[in-house]
């Protein structure tokens, strides 16, 4: 399997079926139903299929396959799925047989597939096609209908752990998360009524529907003003987490008062970013890096108070703002790991620690607790010899474990955790923002004739090919203060991504442009030469 195939994101976040390809979209969805059924037979466990194209436009659609523990499918199976999705109708049987043979599947084994869908107009038809695919191979299916991606991950994990992780129903999901949230905030005496208010931009998608469904269970401990609830606007159009992060501005459709805390979900509610406007109307964003900092600081303090010796780490990608990495390593003294882009890499790295907090800068992330960590926390809550401080900390840790959806980044669960932390600490969004100052940064895209000519190492932070590119980047970076820059081929778009950060915005913009020019000249740029930003 080539690197390209391994990174082939056919089934990940931005997976979308081609709009104008020769194969009708529903045929591909049938194939994903077949695929999930095979995977279920192979793993002897329930598999999930979520019909969504996440933060992409309403017109796009795709599927995400969910493995038994609620994780994303393995790269090898992503590869098989790609083969099946690309097979023309006449070759479908051969492709199927090939996979069955290669993976030695016992076709007499039962199969179980959970199916969910987002609010896109094409989702109902596509999810029906997935269900048909499952049935055609004799698999059993359960249609959860409209759910967020993380909710379906949760159901799959609950089902495969015989209820140990929770009950595989929406009711079970809301009860677990909301009860934990209420327990966490119950004694948050530092929290004023004003601070219990949050504006949520639902991206006109499934997240909005689900926030509505959950709201009453929060018993006014959190008062949500929901915007972009799908009643008028278009999914992800000028709103949602991706728009806010990339455009660095508030979404349309939200009325924001200065100082008010706001957050945006993406189209399938697996990403979240926070922001506010200051008294001068200036926009401030609190992205995945700030979220990871808030959560890891909170957990580290609780571990100290509880007297628990558990290893905590934060996992980031090269896109994490340099200020966040510096703050975490030097001020917070937590271990920081950097992985390649893509949540499966972060998830995997986070599993190596007792507590692994992972977030992409774009707001996708969660916290993983090892079995040992969960057991030690649980024991301490019941330890009659423990002093009040450590017992209180242990209880807070236990409720934190319960409010988190460990299967995947989850906007609803992350929101509840962040809100609980702010309430417990009596912290305003401005105080949270002030933990460290983001270094100004800029992301650009360069079109090249073949982006595979760029090969990287060191978690994508250095280019090993084409020759001379890294040397060029190194000497450009030296011309700017507090600067850092890297380039990598996108796994989801046919472009090379350029990232630069530096002491000032002008400097970051200039560096990003200079590096883009180097990519254009050394890596076979197409079209016009990149122009300066100013
Ligand atoms: C810079 C950036 O935001 N890259 C995104 C984007 O990947 P690229 O490989 O950069 O196209 O899509 C991925 C899937 O949604 C997401 O995990 C990742 O964070
Ligand atoms: Mg998403």
Automatic annotation (TrEMBL):
The note on the cofactor says: Binds 1 Mg(2+) ion per subunit.
**Which residues does the UniProt record annotate as the domain Phosphoacetylglucosamine mutase AMG1?**
172-273, 287-426
**BP GO annotations:** carbohydrate metabolic process; hemopoiesis; UDP-N-acetylglucosamine biosynthetic process
- The Alpha-D-phosphohexomutase C-terminal domain sits at 464-516
Which pathway, per its entry?
Nucleotide-sugar biosynthesis; UDP-N-acetyl-alpha-D-glucosamine biosynthesis; N-acetyl-alpha-D-glucosamine 1-phosphate from alpha-D-glucosamine 6-phosphate (route I): step 2/2
The yes or no answer to whether the keyword Magnesium is present is yes
Family, similarity comment: Belongs to the phosphohexose mutase family.
Purpose: Catalyzes the conversion of GlcNAc-6-P into GlcNAc-1-P during the synthesis of uridine diphosphate/UDP-GlcNAc, a sugar nucleotide critical to multiple glycosylation pathways including protein N- and O-glycosylation.
What is the protein's given name? Answer: Phosphoacetylglucosamine mutase
Write down the species. Solea senegalensis (Senegalese sole)
Q: What does the record give as the organism's lineage?
A: Eukaryota, Metazoa, Chordata, Craniata, Vertebrata
């Amino acid at each position: 399997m080539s690197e390209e195939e391994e990174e082939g994101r056919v089934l990940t976040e931005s997976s979308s079926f081609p709009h104008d390809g020769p194969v009708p979209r529903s045929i591909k969805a049938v194939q994903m139903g077949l695929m999930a059924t095979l995977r279920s037979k192979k793993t002897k466990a329930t598999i999930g299929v979520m019909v969504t194209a996440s933060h992409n436009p309403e017109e796009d659609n795709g599927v995400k396959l969910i493995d038994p523990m609620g994780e994303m499918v393995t790269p090898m199976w992503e590869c098989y799925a790609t083969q099946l999705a690309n097979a023309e109708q006449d070759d479908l049987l051969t492709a199927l047989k090939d996979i069955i043979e290669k993976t030695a599947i016992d076709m007499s084994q039962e199969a179980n597939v959970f199916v969910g869908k987002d609010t896109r107009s094409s989702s109902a038809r596509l999810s029906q096609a997935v269900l048909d695919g499952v049935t055609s191979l004799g698999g059993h299916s359960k249609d959860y209908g409209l759910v967020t991606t993380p909710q379906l991950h949760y159901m799959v994990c609950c089902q495969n752990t015989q209820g140990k992780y929770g009950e595989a129903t929406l009711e079970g999901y809301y009860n677990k998360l909301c009860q934990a949230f209420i327990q966490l905030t119950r004694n948050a005496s530092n929290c004023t009524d004003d601070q219990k208010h949050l504006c949520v931009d639902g991206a006109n998608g499934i997240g909005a529907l689900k926030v509505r469904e959950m709201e009453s269970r929060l018993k006014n401990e959190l008062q949500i003003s929901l915007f972009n609830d799908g009643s008028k606007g278009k999914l992800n159009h000028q709103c949602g987490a991706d728009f806010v992060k990339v455009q660095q501005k508030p979404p349309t459709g939200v009325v924001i008062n200065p100082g008010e805390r706001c957050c945006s979900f993406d189209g399938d509610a697996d990403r979240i970013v926070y922001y506010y406007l200051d008294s001068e109307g200036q926009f401030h964003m609190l992205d995945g890096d700030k979220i990871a900092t808030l959560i890891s600081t909170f957990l580290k303090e609780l571990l100290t108070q509880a007297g628990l010796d558990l290893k905590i780490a934060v996992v980031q990608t090269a896109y994490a703002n340099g200020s966040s990495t510096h703050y975490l390593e030097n001020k917070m003294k937590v271990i920081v790991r950097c992985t390649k882009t893509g949540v499966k890499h972060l998830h995997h790295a986070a599993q190596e620690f007792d507590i692994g907090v992972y977030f992409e800068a774009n707001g996708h992330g969660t916290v993983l607790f090892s079995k040992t960590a969960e057991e030690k926390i649980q024991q301490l809550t019941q330890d009659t010899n423990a002093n009040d401080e450590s017992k209180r900390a242990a209880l807070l840790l236990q409720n934190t474990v319960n409010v988190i959806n460990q299967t995947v980044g989850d906007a609803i669960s992350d929101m509840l955790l962040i809100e609980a932390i702010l309430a417990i600490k009596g912290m305003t969004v401005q105080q949270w923002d002030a933990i460290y100052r983001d270094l100004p940064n800029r992301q650009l895209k360069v079109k090249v004739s073949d982006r595979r000519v760029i090969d990287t190492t060191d978690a994508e932070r250095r280019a090993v090919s084409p020759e001379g590119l890294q040397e060029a980047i190194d000497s450009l970076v030296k011309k700017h203060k507090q600067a850092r820059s890297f380039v990598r081929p996108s796994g989801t778009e046919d472009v090379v991504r350029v990232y630069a950060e530096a002491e000032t915005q002008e400097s970051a913009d200039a560096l990003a442009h200079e590096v883009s020019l180097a990519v254009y000249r050394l890596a076979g740029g197409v079209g016009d030469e990149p122009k300066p930003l100013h």
